[in-house]
Write a structure and sequence with these properties.
alpha/beta; binds phosphoenolpyruvate
Length: 249
């Protein structure tokens, strides 16, 4: 039985004051939740999360990480630095990183490796664009993105990682993949891993992301291969995020 995970992606939102208020509400809503809850914040707020969440069940993480260990990489943040701020998770390969910042499959795979090397749990984001879906290329695109990581890190590395299927056309658009559409891709991801290591695939958590709201979360999370969610916009509204966590159990 896979424990569900609901992870918030705050993107480039927040302020010290707004974060503190949001986290207070989240902490108050934690009792009774069965699922694991995490928030992924902009780098400058990780110290605040560490201070406010260290003694709670809420885990936290970052939204990206350098593929390099250290050195002359102005503006970058290493995986070891994230560990110093108590991060458990880090998003790698979010579609905004891929499309806006030119992160290739190879760079995403290198970031995945860098995160794991210091004990962070990468949340590997995969997903097709609308044009790719309409061209019937969803399975090929998601497999290519996944294989880039498996080829570089080895399938065993997925044992300490999370996968998030996030169709690009559903992120921040208000258009959600139907539960059946999402389940189909999740099952294909699990099958691809199972072909290499069946036991590992059974335990792999595969989150769905893309306009998850309190209204659609329960139906998505009820699918066999959907093990929680990666939540953008709704993660900034305490009541909505908590309602989504409740839908996960
Ligand atoms: C995301 O940013 O990963 C995301 C899924 O955003 P939203 O929930 O707003 O679609």
């Amino acid at each position: 039985m896979r424990k569900k995970l609901v992870a918030g992606n705050w993107k480039m939102h927040g302020s010290l004051q707004a974060n503190a208020a949001l986290l207070e509400r989240l902490k108050a809503g934690m009792p009774g939740l069965q699922c694991e809850v995490a928030v992924c914040a902009p780098f400058p707020y990780l110290a605040q999360l560490q201070a406010l969440l260290a003694s709670t069940q809420v885990r936290w993480g970052a939204q990206s990480v350098s593929e390099h260990v250290s050195g002359a990489y102005t503006g970058e943040v290493s995986a070891a630095m994230l560990c110093e701020f108590g991060c458990r998770y880090v998003l790698v390969g979010h579609s905004e990183r891929r499309s806006l910042f030119g992160e290739s499959d190879a760079v995403v795979a290198a970031k995945f490796v860098a995160a794991r090397e210091v004990g962070l749990v990468p949340i590997l984001c995969l997903g097709e664009t609308l044009a790719e879906r309409e061209a019937g290329a969803t399975a090929a695109v998601v497999s290519r993105q996944l294989d880039a990581v498996i080829d570089r890190a080895g399938v065993a590395a997925l044992a300490s990682a999370v996968v998030a299927y996030e169709p690009v056309w559903a992120i921040g658009t208000g258009v959600t993949a139907s539960p059946a559409q999402a389940q189909e891709v999740h099952a294909a991801i699990r099958k691809r891993v199972a072909d290499l290591d069946a036991g590992l695939a059974e335990g792999l958590r595969i989150l769905y992301g893309g306009s998850v709201k309190p209204q659609n979360a329960a139906e998505l999370f009820a699918q066999d291969d959907i093990d929680g969610g990666l939540i953008g916009g709704a993660a900034l509204v305490a009541d909505d995020f908590l309602a989504i966590c409740q839908a996960a159990g």
